[in-house]
Amino acid sequence: MIYEMTYQLRVSNFSEGLNWYKSLLNKEPDLTPHEGFAEWELLPQCWLQVAEGAPSEGSGPLRLGVLSIEETRNRMINELNVDYFEIFTREDVPVKWATFTDPWGNRLGFFEYKKEDTFKTIIL
Hints:
The chain is an alpha/beta fold. The protein has three helices and eight strands, in the order E-H-E-E-E-E-H-E-E-E-H.
């Protein structure tokens, strides 16, 4: 049985990476157990780890659910200098999604449910 998960991203400059991810996630890390390593609990028992090191080529994307993908994209562009990225949608898929990279080449993304009722059902 799986009861918890972690996803680790690596950044070549930890100080810059820490600040970038604090801004992305709008919060301080939940844990900083040692130098060059920070963790955020994104959801109960689901952790994002940022560690100093060489990024893994071709990994990801790690996609995070948001309420407004367009507003989130604008914030990423304005606050974190992320290049403009396209938002995709398909008639047979219940979400809109997008992928971008952090300054170290890690692939990240967002998704938004097309119907508000879908999000409410998942949260309740």
